[in-house]
Amino acid sequence: MRKAFTLIELLVYTAIFSLVIVAFISIFVASVRVESNESSTAEVETQSQFLLKQIQYYVQQSSLVDMPQDTATTTLKLRMANPSLDPTYIKLTNGALLIQQGTGALQALSSNQVIVSNLVFTRHANPPGHDTVSVTMTVAYNTGNIQRAFSQALQTSIARVSAATFDSNLVPSSTNTWSVGATGNVWQSINNLIWFSGSNVGIGSADTSPTQQLEVAGGVRLNTTASQPSCSASTTRGSLWFTQGASNATDTLQLCVQYGDGTYHWVKLY
């Protein structure tokens, strides 16, 4: 006959079995924890890359970054060539990154699986190149479980690539303090009709490389019915003035010149 287990043997077996069970449970919990951490990390990294690519896309497609220079702000305002998308705002609200285009409703760019914080946009001028926008933000996994907590701080700089377009008048300053362009940085053309080459200006679609101070591809018309001003050194010397004749009368063309005695007169050329 087989002998029954003694009390000591049963205690030993029970202890060994308990240790094995505890070891298996520990391994299982550790595996679940690692899987959870990997899931949190993957979600944050995926969302981070998606958000950066979205911001990059809209900045590169914009015609103007409408923000003060070198001033940190939590809202990115972009002007778009498409009126239905203008302006485009990207901003942070209650941990979510949102976008609004034109008069459309706010839409979420980030998912509810993450929380976005510490969002800062800064526009930097880069003449004669396009503006750049630096972006700083933190993306964290949305959980109350400290075991699954994971966050990532992001920082990048994005350059605008589209040419500037305007959907309204380009109005000068009322204080007469602003200029269009700068010394050393020359515009190529305006509407492919007014062309620049150094200090030379060409007018007309055929005059793309003017060699004189002013060149006109085509005729120049003097057309005025206004009263002819007096010929003087300060305002009209060297000016041509065309006067339309009355009905059945000859038109006249005059040039303001200085005589040898120092006086100024309109001289009839025709």
Written description of the protein model:
20% of the residues lie in helices and 30% in strands. By secondary structure, it is an alpha+beta fold. It has 3 domains: 7-159, no CATH class; 186-220, no CATH class; 221-270, no CATH class. A 5-stranded antiparallel beta sheet has the order 1-2-3-4-5, covered by helices on one side. Strands 9-10-11-12 form a 4-stranded mixed beta sheet, with no helix packed on it. Strand 13 (240-243) and strand 14 (252-258) form a beta hairpin. It is rod-shaped.
At a glance:
The chain is α+β, with helices and mostly antiparallel strands and 270 residues long. 20% of the residues lie in helices and 30% in strands. It folds into three domains: 153 residues, no CATH class; 35 residues, no CATH class; 50 residues, no CATH class.
Reconstruct the topology from this structure:
Blueprint lengths: L6 H55 L2 E2 L9 E5 L8 E6 L2 E6 L5 E2 L5 E11 L7 E10 L9 E9 L29 E2 L3 E4 L2 E4 L10 E3 L23 E4 L8 E7 L5 E5 L2
Parallel strand pairs: 11-12
Antiparallel strand pairs: 1-2, 2-3, 3-4, 4-5, 6-7, 7-8, 9-10, 10-11, 13-14, 14-15
